[in-house]
Structure formats: structure tokens, C-alpha cells
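U., I forgot to send this yesterday:
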Amino acid sequence: MTARMTATATAAGAAVRGAHGRGAARGVAPLILFALFIVVLLLLLAGGVRVYQGLAAEQEAVKAQRFGTGLLANSVRAADAHDAISAGPGPEGDALVLSEATAAGMVETRIYLFEGRLLQEYVLAGAEYQPDQAQEIMQTDAFSFSFADGLLTLSTSQGSVDVALRSQEAGL
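Result:
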């Protein structure tokens, strides 16, 4: 009888171990599925971060371009008066010269291209160009301007802006 009880106990133990083995396999499948879900979420998150960084960089570039062209337009609008806007010889091509009469005499705001930078310089009329003391407006490879029908067009490699002159007269 002892042998018979031992055989029954052994068979029962094998059945229990088999049930636990299948239960363990059933428990691993949801864990693998959960881990796969987490990996996919992390990949989507990383992709979203890259897209956001690209959009933010593009937005900064547009913002910088608008700042530069906006500064140009506002400088011209502030100086808009009879014979206040003219062209002059700059270090690397034409310079936009905005003249203004002050108590100290005639002063000029000069906007010109120098070594890949658009510079703005505020000096007494007739003074030499001093690019090392000028303020940088923006990085650009080109700068040009034209005047037609009361509209001054300022162009850089970053974009262009049109300014309608109130005085309708420019010495360009």
C-alpha cells in the first residue's frame, strides 16, 4: 500500500507541477506584451521630441529673420522724412543712409553689409565707416534696396521687406 500511495502522490505532484508550469507561461505573455507596449511608447516619445526640436529650430530661424527685417523696416519708418533716406558707398556695396538733423549737427544711421553681417552704425554725417563699432542686425550674405513709387524694398538673403514711405521722397 505504501507503494501505491507513493505512486499516487508522485502522479499528483507531477500534475501540480504541470499546472504551475502552464500558469507561469500564461503569466509571462502579458509581461512581454506590456514590455513591448512600453518600448513602442518610448519610441513614439523619442520621435515626438525630434519633431518638436525641428519645429522649434525652424520657429527660431523665422523669428530671427522677422527680427532683422522688422528692425530694418522700423529704422526706415523712424527716419522717414523729406530727403532723409539715401544711398551711400558702403564697405561692401551700397549702404542705406538715414539722415537726421540734431542739435549736434547732421547724424546718419548707416545700414550696410560687411563680412556676411548686416550692420547698423550711428555716426556724424561724413564720418568714416567703422564696422568694428557698428551693431549687428543679422547674419546675411546679401543686402540690397530699391525705391519705386513711394515704396522702399529692402532685401537680404534672409528675406525682404517693403516699407511705404510717408514722405514719398527719397534720395535713392
